[in-house]
């Protein structure tokens, strides 16, 4: 009986330790965090004017809040929206973001943004497609 109690205690402790580890789930960034990442990348690459950054940051935060609200609206109705609907909605917001950036950046800067900076902002997924990584 003592062995069974001990094993049960050990297994519960290990389970609690595993569940307490960070990185178990995906935490979506706030609009402000997303804009801060973009601001940092643009600042290090182009050194834009502070007033221009303030205007761009405000516009992007508003855009990302609208995007989050729209995505929440799509997922709130019992059924999950189809892939085409989701892609179309995301494309609208990507196009709006691109227009904001085109208004602020030169043609060369915008091309650098699209080719080098924007791809670096996409979240990297672990190999194997799920938690724990590799193939089993």
Report on this model:
- The chain has a domain at 29-121.
- It contains five helices and no strands.
- The chain has 136 residues and is mainly alpha-helical.
- Helices cover 72% and strands 0% of the residues.
Task: Please outline the helices and strands.
Layout lengths: L1 H18 L11 H16 L3 H27 L6 H22 L2 H15 L15
- How many β-strand runs? 0
Gross geometry: extended
Strand content: under 5%
Radius of gyration: 22 Å
Helix content: over 70%
Summarize it:
The protein is mainly alpha-helical and 136 residues long. It has five helices and no strands.
Descriptive keywords:
mainly alpha; 72% helix; 136 residues; 0% strand; single chain
């Amino acid at each position: 009986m003592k062995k069974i109690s001990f094993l049960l205690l050990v297994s519960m402790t290990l389970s609690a330790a595993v569940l307490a580890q960070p990185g178990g789930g995906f935490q979506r960034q706030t609009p402000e965090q997303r804009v801060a990442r973009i601001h940092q990348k643009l600042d290090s690459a182009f050194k834009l004017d502070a007033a221009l950054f303030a205007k761009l940051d405000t516009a992007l935060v508003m855009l990302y809040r609208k995007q989050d609200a729209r995505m929440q609206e799509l997922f709130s109705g019992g059924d999950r929206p189809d892939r085409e609907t989701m892609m179309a909605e995301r494309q609208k917001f990507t196009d709006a973001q691109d227009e904001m950036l085109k208004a602020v950046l030169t043609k060369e800067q915008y091309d650098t943004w699209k080719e080098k900076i924007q791809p670096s902002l996409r979240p990297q997924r672990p190999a194997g497609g799920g938690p724990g990584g590799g193939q089993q």
